[in-house]
Amino acid sequence: MISSITSAALLIIVFILFLGTIPALILWDHRQQARTATKLSQDIQPCTLCHEQRAGLKLHQTALTGLLLAANYKYFNNYVCPPHARALYSQFQQHTLLKGWWSLHGFIRTPITLLENLSYFKQYMQALAANTSNTPK
Q1: Higher pLDDT pick, 10 / 60
Q2: Residues 96, 66: contact at Cβ < 8 Å?
Q3: Predicted local confidence at residue 136, as pLDDT
Q4: pLDDT digit string (tens) for 80-100?
């Protein structure tokens, strides 16, 4: 009796984890395209939030909200200046840290989303440093 309950519980856990990986695999292609676009398009554009002609590079961030059996993603992928990039990074990380865990899918995706946001922000800061060091004075 105990072994049948244990095997049923194990089967349910494997099924839930499998269901969590399907959306992750579907979204992986989108994230790979965004990562490639971020690396390739590091040209300077005006900030889309304040419309100033400061150095605005493309930043990609994701906010995850857990909804018990599902998850909701909010994406930002646009040109921003450094102050807005820091504010967006902080806002998206806080949102994911507080609201990302509240689903079965969120236990797996929240740490991944946090690390991806950190990676995108580091790429942004490195590209900003490279662009400002190459700018003639």
Answers
A1: 60
A2: no
A3: 55
A4: 999 999 999 999 999 999 999
Polymer length of the chain: 137
- pLDDT above 50: residue 40: no
By the 10 Å C-beta count (0-12 exposed, 13-18 middle, 19+ buried), 113 is classed as: buried
DSSP code at position 49 = T
What does the angle CA 79 – CA 66 – CA 25 come to, to the nearest 5 degrees? 70
How would you write 69-104 as a 3-class SS string?
CEEEEEEEEEEECHHHHHHHHHHHHHHHHHHCCCEC
Amino acid at 75: Y
Are the C-beta atoms of residues 100 and 106 closer than 8 Å to each other?
Answer: yes
- Nearest CA to 19 out of 114, 107, 100 is that of 107
Amino acid identity for residue 41 in this structure = S
Q: Which two tokens stand for residue 11?
A: 């089967």
